[in-house]
Specification:
- The chain is an alpha+beta fold and about 150 residues long.
- The protein folds into 2 domains: about 20-70, no CATH class; about 75-140, 434 Repressor (Amino-terminal Domain), CATH 1.10.260.
- It is about 40% helix and about 20% strand.
- It is built from 6 helices and 2 strands.
- It has helices spanning about 60-70, 75-85, 90-95, 100-110, 115-125, 130-140; strands at about 20-30, 35-50.
- A two-stranded antiparallel ribbon has the order 1-2.
- Helix 3 (about 90-95) packs across helix 4 (about 100-110) and helix 5 (about 115-125) packs across helix 6 (about 130-140).
- The chain is elongated, with a radius of gyration of 21 Å.
C-alpha cells in the first residue's frame, strides 16, 4: 500500500493520531454481476488505529485483483497484450465491441471491472478471426460529423 499522505493518520473514530498500516488477514464478500464472491487476502496492509482498532478499508488494487481472479475475468494486462497482439488501438477495439473507448481504457487500467458478458465477448473476439469478421459486418455505419 502506498498512502497518499504519510503515516500516522488521525483516527476518525477516536481522533488519536495512531493510524498505521497493519498486515491483516482480510476476508470479505464482494458482488459482481449480481453474484457474491468470497475474497481472501492473507496479508493486506490496512490502515489501523493502534488505540481503538478502527480500520480504514480502501479499495486498493489487491482487492480488485483478488475479485477479478475469483470471478475469472481477463486481467488488465491480458487485455492489453491481446489487443496489442492484434495491432489494435483502444479506439479500434471499442468500435469493434460496440463500447466507448473510455470503457476499454478503464478495463485496461484496472479502474473498472468488465462484466462477465463483456469478458466473454472479448475472449471470443481475441480468439476467433471469424468473430472479428462477423462483428465488423454487423457494425453500423459511423454517423457523419456535425459540421
Amino acid at each position: 500500500m502506498t498512502p497518499d499522505r504519510p503515516f500516522p493518520w488521525r483516527c476518525l473514530t477516536c481522533r488519536a493520531k495512531e493510524v498505521y498500516p497493519k498486515a491483516t488477514d482480510y476476508r470479505t464478500i464482494r458482488k459482481h454481476d449480481g453474484r457474491e464472491y468470497a475474497i481472501h487476502i492473507p496479508d493486506l496492509e490496512i490502515p489501523t488505529c493502534r488505540q481503538c482498532g478502527e480500520q480504514v478499508i480502501a479499495d486498493d488494487g489487491r482487492i480488485i485483483a483478488a475479485l477479478r481472479a475469483q470471478v475469472g475475468l481477463l486481467t488488465p494486462e491480458e487485455m492489453q497484450c491481446l489487443r496489442a497482439g492484434l495491432g489494435m488501438t483502444q479506439q479500434e477495439l471499442a468500435e469493434q465491441l460496440g463500447v466507448a473507448k473510455e470503457s476499454i481504457c478503464r478495463w485496461e487500467t484496472g479502474n473498472v471491472m468488465q462484466s462477465r458478458a463483456m469478458d466473454n465477448l472479448m475472449r471470443l473476439f481475441f480468439e476467433s478471426k471469424t468473430v472479428r469478421k462477423l462483428l465488423r459486418r454487423f457494425r453500423p455505419e459511423q454517423p457523419l460529423a456535425a459540421g
